[in-house]
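step=encode ok
step=design start
structure_in=
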Protein backbone atom coordinates (compact mmCIF):
# COMPACT_ATOMS: atom_id res chain seq x y z
CA UNK A 1 0.00 0.00 0.00
CA UNK A 2 2.73 2.45 0.98
CA UNK A 3 4.72 1.52 -2.14
CA UNK A 4 1.67 2.15 -4.33
CA UNK A 5 1.03 5.56 -2.75
CA UNK A 6 4.72 6.44 -3.05
CA UNK A 7 4.82 5.53 -6.76
CA UNK A 8 1.65 7.51 -7.48
CA UNK A 9 2.99 10.61 -5.75
CA UNK A 10 6.33 10.27 -7.57
CA UNK A 11 4.47 10.07 -10.86
CA UNK A 12 2.25 13.10 -10.13
CA UNK A 13 4.65 15.31 -8.17
CA UNK A 14 8.14 14.22 -9.19
CA UNK A 15 11.00 13.24 -6.91
CA UNK A 16 10.35 16.05 -4.42
CA UNK A 17 6.99 15.38 -2.77
CA UNK A 18 5.49 18.39 -1.00
CA UNK A 19 2.10 18.38 0.70
CA UNK A 20 2.18 22.12 1.50
CA UNK A 21 0.24 23.10 -1.63
CA UNK A 22 -3.42 22.56 -2.48
CA UNK A 23 -2.71 20.62 -5.68
CA UNK A 24 -0.18 18.26 -4.07
CA UNK A 25 -2.46 17.70 -1.08
CA UNK A 26 -5.24 16.79 -3.49
CA UNK A 27 -2.93 14.26 -5.14
CA UNK A 28 -2.23 12.74 -1.74
CA UNK A 29 -5.93 12.52 -0.87
CA UNK A 30 -6.60 10.61 -4.10
CA UNK A 31 -3.60 8.28 -3.63
CA UNK A 32 -3.79 7.65 0.12
CA UNK A 33 -7.48 8.28 0.71
CA UNK A 34 -8.88 6.33 -2.24
CA UNK A 35 -6.57 4.26 -4.42
CA UNK A 36 -4.25 2.88 -1.73
CA UNK A 37 -6.96 1.78 0.75
CA UNK A 38 -9.16 0.39 -2.03
CA UNK A 39 -6.35 -1.78 -3.40
CA UNK A 40 -5.12 -2.92 0.04
CA UNK A 41 -8.74 -3.62 1.07
CA UNK A 42 -9.21 -5.81 -2.00
CA UNK A 43 -6.07 -7.80 -1.21
CA UNK A 44 -6.95 -8.17 2.49
CA UNK A 45 -10.55 -9.19 1.76
CA UNK A 46 -9.44 -11.70 -0.86
CA UNK A 47 -7.09 -13.33 1.67
CA UNK A 48 -9.70 -13.32 4.47
CA UNK A 49 -12.37 -14.71 2.13
CA UNK A 50 -10.12 -17.40 0.63
CA UNK A 51 -11.51 -20.30 2.70
CA UNK A 52 -15.17 -19.44 2.15
CA UNK A 53 -14.69 -18.59 -1.50
CA UNK A 54 -17.11 -15.64 -1.19
CA UNK A 55 -15.91 -12.04 -1.42
CA UNK A 56 -17.15 -10.20 1.68
CA UNK A 57 -18.05 -6.64 0.62
CA UNK A 58 -18.58 -5.51 4.25
CA UNK A 59 -15.00 -6.46 5.21
CA UNK A 60 -13.63 -4.61 2.20
CA UNK A 61 -15.61 -1.43 2.95
CA UNK A 62 -14.66 -1.45 6.64
CA UNK A 63 -11.00 -2.07 5.87
CA UNK A 64 -10.81 0.63 3.19
CA UNK A 65 -12.66 3.23 5.28
CA UNK A 66 -10.61 2.81 8.46
CA UNK A 67 -7.36 2.59 6.51
CA UNK A 68 -8.19 5.69 4.48
CA UNK A 69 -9.06 7.79 7.54
CA UNK A 70 -5.89 6.73 9.33
CA UNK A 71 -3.68 7.71 6.40
CA UNK A 72 -5.46 11.02 5.78
CA UNK A 73 -5.33 12.03 9.44
CA UNK A 74 -1.72 11.31 10.39
CA UNK A 75 0.41 11.30 7.24
CA UNK A 76 -0.03 14.95 6.06
CA UNK A 77 0.51 16.47 9.55
CA UNK A 78 3.60 14.31 10.10
CA UNK A 79 5.00 15.16 6.67
CA UNK A 80 4.33 18.90 6.98
CA UNK A 81 5.59 19.04 10.57
CA UNK A 82 8.83 17.32 9.54
CA UNK A 83 9.43 19.77 6.68
CA UNK A 84 8.56 22.71 8.93
CA UNK A 85 10.89 21.51 11.66
CA UNK A 86 13.76 21.35 9.16
CA UNK A 87 13.29 25.12 8.65
CA UNK A 88 12.77 25.84 12.34
CA UNK A 89 15.89 27.98 12.70
CA UNK A 90 14.81 30.34 9.90
CA UNK A 91 11.91 31.81 11.89
CA UNK A 92 12.25 35.07 13.88
CA UNK A 93 12.75 34.74 17.63
CA UNK A 94 9.31 36.19 18.42
CA UNK A 95 7.71 33.33 16.50
CA UNK A 96 9.14 30.71 18.87
CA UNK A 97 7.63 32.27 21.98
CA UNK A 98 4.23 32.72 20.35
CA UNK A 99 4.37 29.21 18.93
CA UNK A 100 5.24 27.68 22.31
CA UNK A 101 2.46 29.65 24.00
CA UNK A 102 -0.16 28.47 21.48
CA UNK A 103 0.98 24.84 21.62
CA UNK A 104 1.18 24.91 25.43
CA UNK A 105 -2.27 26.42 25.93
CA UNK A 106 -3.74 24.11 23.29
CA UNK A 107 -2.23 21.07 24.97
CA UNK A 108 -3.69 22.10 28.35
CA UNK A 109 -7.08 22.69 26.72
CA UNK A 110 -7.02 19.28 25.04
CA UNK A 111 -5.98 17.57 28.27
CA UNK A 112 -8.81 19.31 30.11
CA UNK A 113 -11.41 18.23 27.55
CA UNK A 114 -10.26 14.61 27.42
CA UNK A 115 -9.72 14.06 31.15
CA UNK A 116 -13.03 15.41 32.43
CA UNK A 117 -15.88 12.96 32.83
CA UNK A 118 -18.94 15.20 33.13
CA UNK A 119 -19.42 16.68 29.65
CA UNK A 120 -19.14 14.95 26.30
CA UNK A 121 -17.99 18.05 24.44
CA UNK A 122 -15.40 18.05 21.63
CA UNK A 123 -15.95 21.48 20.05
CA UNK A 124 -13.81 23.49 22.58
CA UNK A 125 -10.70 22.00 20.93
CA UNK A 126 -11.42 23.34 17.43
CA UNK A 127 -10.42 26.99 18.20
CA UNK A 128 -6.97 25.70 19.19
CA UNK A 129 -6.42 24.24 15.71
CA UNK A 130 -7.79 27.35 13.96
CA UNK A 131 -5.61 29.69 16.04
CA UNK A 132 -2.56 27.54 15.33
CA UNK A 133 -3.36 27.73 11.60
CA UNK A 134 -3.63 31.53 11.64
CA UNK A 135 -0.54 32.19 13.74
CA UNK A 136 1.81 29.36 12.71
CA UNK A 137 0.27 28.30 9.39
CA UNK A 138 1.16 24.80 8.15
CA UNK A 139 3.52 23.91 10.98
CA UNK A 140 1.01 25.03 13.62
CA UNK A 141 -1.87 23.15 11.98
CA UNK A 142 0.12 19.93 11.73
CA UNK A 143 1.49 19.94 15.28
CA UNK A 144 -1.85 20.91 16.83
CA UNK A 145 -3.57 17.99 15.08
CA UNK A 146 -0.81 15.62 16.19
CA UNK A 147 -1.09 16.82 19.80
CA UNK A 148 -4.86 16.30 19.75
CA UNK A 149 -4.44 12.88 18.11
CA UNK A 150 -2.03 11.65 20.79
CA UNK A 151 -4.04 12.94 23.76
CA UNK A 152 -7.44 11.85 22.44
CA UNK A 153 -6.18 8.37 21.49
CA UNK A 154 -4.61 7.76 24.90
CA UNK A 155 -7.64 9.10 26.78
CA UNK A 156 -10.09 6.99 24.78
CA UNK A 157 -7.96 3.86 25.23
CA UNK A 158 -8.07 4.45 29.02
CA UNK A 159 -11.87 4.78 28.83
CA UNK A 160 -12.09 8.49 29.66
CA UNK A 161 -13.04 11.59 27.69
CA UNK A 162 -15.96 12.66 25.49
CA UNK A 163 -15.49 9.95 22.86
CA UNK A 164 -15.61 7.17 25.44
CA UNK A 165 -18.80 8.65 26.89
CA UNK A 166 -20.57 8.25 23.55
CA UNK A 167 -21.93 4.86 24.66
CA UNK A 168 -21.24 3.04 21.37
CA UNK A 169 -19.12 0.08 20.31
CA UNK A 170 -15.32 0.23 20.19
CA UNK A 171 -15.39 0.25 16.38
CA UNK A 172 -17.75 3.21 16.40
CA UNK A 173 -15.58 5.02 18.96
CA UNK A 174 -12.59 4.58 16.67
CA UNK A 175 -14.60 5.94 13.75
CA UNK A 176 -15.73 8.96 15.81
CA UNK A 177 -12.15 9.63 16.87
CA UNK A 178 -10.88 9.48 13.30
CA UNK A 179 -13.66 11.71 11.97
CA UNK A 180 -13.09 14.20 14.79
CA UNK A 181 -9.38 14.49 13.96
CA UNK A 182 -9.99 14.62 10.21
CA UNK A 183 -12.64 17.33 10.59
CA UNK A 184 -10.31 19.58 12.60
CA UNK A 185 -7.49 19.07 10.13
CA UNK A 186 -9.79 19.72 7.15
CA UNK A 187 -11.08 22.96 8.69
CA UNK A 188 -7.67 24.40 9.52
CA UNK A 189 -5.72 23.24 6.47
CA UNK A 190 -7.34 25.63 3.91
CA UNK A 191 -6.53 28.55 6.22
CA UNK A 192 -2.90 27.43 6.56
CA UNK A 193 -2.52 26.82 2.82
CA UNK A 194 -3.98 30.24 1.95
CA UNK A 195 -1.64 32.02 4.37
CA UNK A 196 1.34 30.02 3.10
CA UNK A 197 0.47 30.97 -0.49
CA UNK A 198 0.18 34.63 0.56
CA UNK A 199 3.62 34.55 2.20
CA UNK A 200 5.10 32.92 -0.90
CA UNK A 201 3.63 35.65 -3.13
CA UNK A 202 4.98 38.33 -0.79
CA UNK A 203 8.46 36.81 -0.91
CA UNK A 204 8.35 36.54 -4.71
CA UNK A 205 7.14 40.13 -5.02
CA UNK A 206 9.87 41.39 -2.69
CA UNK A 207 12.52 39.50 -4.66
CA UNK A 208 11.14 40.88 -7.93
CA UNK A 209 11.40 44.42 -6.56
CA UNK A 210 14.98 43.78 -5.47
CA UNK A 211 15.85 42.45 -8.93
CA UNK A 212 14.17 45.37 -10.68
CA UNK A 213 15.90 47.90 -8.43
CA UNK A 214 19.24 46.23 -9.12
CA UNK A 215 18.72 46.56 -12.88
CA UNK A 216 17.56 50.19 -12.68
CA UNK A 217 20.43 51.18 -10.37
CA UNK A 218 22.96 49.81 -12.86
CA UNK A 219 21.97 52.19 -15.68
CA UNK A 220 23.34 55.74 -16.05
CA UNK A 221 20.02 57.38 -17.00
CA UNK A 222 17.64 58.64 -14.35
CA UNK A 223 14.60 56.41 -13.89
CA UNK A 224 11.81 57.82 -11.73
CA UNK A 225 8.19 57.47 -10.82
CA UNK A 226 5.76 60.05 -9.46
CA UNK A 227 2.31 59.99 -7.97
CA UNK A 228 -0.67 61.71 -9.61
CA UNK A 229 0.41 65.07 -8.12
CA UNK A 230 3.92 64.88 -9.56
CA UNK A 231 5.68 63.98 -6.30
CA UNK A 232 8.56 61.51 -6.56
CA UNK A 233 7.83 58.03 -5.23
CA UNK A 234 10.82 56.22 -6.79
CA UNK A 235 14.27 57.18 -8.11
CA UNK A 236 17.23 55.08 -9.16
CA UNK A 237 20.86 55.69 -8.13
CA UNK A 238 21.55 57.77 -11.24
CA UNK A 239 19.54 60.58 -9.63
CA UNK A 240 22.18 61.06 -6.93
CA UNK A 241 24.99 61.01 -9.50
CA UNK A 242 23.39 63.60 -11.76
CA UNK A 243 21.58 65.83 -9.28
CA UNK A 244 23.99 65.56 -6.30
CA UNK A 245 21.13 65.12 -3.84
CA UNK A 246 20.20 61.98 -1.98
CA UNK A 247 17.19 59.89 -2.93
CA UNK A 248 15.95 60.00 0.69
CA UNK A 249 15.72 63.79 0.58
CA UNK A 250 13.98 63.70 -2.79
CA UNK A 251 11.22 61.14 -2.26
CA UNK A 252 7.94 62.92 -1.57
CA UNK A 253 9.01 66.22 -3.13
CA UNK A 254 7.44 67.63 -6.27
CA UNK A 255 9.25 67.24 -9.55
CA UNK A 256 8.59 70.92 -10.23
CA UNK A 257 10.68 71.90 -7.19
CA UNK A 258 13.82 70.73 -9.03
CA UNK A 259 13.03 72.50 -12.29
CA UNK A 260 14.90 75.56 -13.50
CA UNK A 261 13.09 78.50 -11.84
CA UNK A 262 12.03 80.05 -15.14
CA UNK A 263 10.49 76.75 -16.29
CA UNK A 264 8.58 75.63 -13.18
CA UNK A 265 5.22 76.62 -14.62
CA UNK A 266 5.99 74.72 -17.82
CA UNK A 267 6.89 71.62 -15.79
CA UNK A 268 3.65 71.85 -13.81
CA UNK A 269 1.69 72.16 -17.05
CA UNK A 270 3.47 69.19 -18.61
CA UNK A 271 2.73 67.12 -15.52
CA UNK A 272 -0.93 68.05 -15.81
CA UNK A 273 -0.90 67.08 -19.49
CA UNK A 274 0.70 63.73 -18.64
CA UNK A 275 -2.01 63.09 -16.04
CA UNK A 276 -4.72 63.68 -18.62
CA UNK A 277 -2.97 61.61 -21.32
CA UNK A 278 -4.67 58.39 -22.38
CA UNK A 279 -1.76 57.36 -24.61
CA UNK A 280 0.77 54.76 -23.41
CA UNK A 281 3.81 57.03 -23.79
CA UNK A 282 4.99 60.57 -24.34
CA UNK A 283 8.34 62.33 -24.81
CA UNK A 284 9.04 65.63 -23.07
CA UNK A 285 12.14 67.72 -22.34
CA UNK A 286 12.55 69.11 -18.83
CA UNK A 287 15.48 71.03 -17.39
CA UNK A 288 16.37 70.46 -13.76
CA UNK A 289 18.68 72.47 -11.55
CA UNK A 290 21.40 70.48 -9.79
CA UNK A 291 21.93 70.75 -6.06
CA UNK A 292 25.19 72.71 -6.55
CA UNK A 293 23.38 75.18 -8.81
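sequence_out=
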Amino acid sequence: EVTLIFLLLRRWQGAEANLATTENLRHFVVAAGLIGPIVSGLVATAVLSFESGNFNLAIWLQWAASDSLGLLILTPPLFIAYNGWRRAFSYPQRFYWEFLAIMGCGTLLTLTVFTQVHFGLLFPITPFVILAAFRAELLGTSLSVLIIAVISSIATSYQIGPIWQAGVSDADRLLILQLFLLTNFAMAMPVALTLAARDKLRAEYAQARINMASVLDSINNIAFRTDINGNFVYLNKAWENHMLVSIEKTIGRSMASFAVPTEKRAVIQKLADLTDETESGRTSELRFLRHDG
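step=design ok
step=annotate ok -> The longest strand covers residues 232-235.
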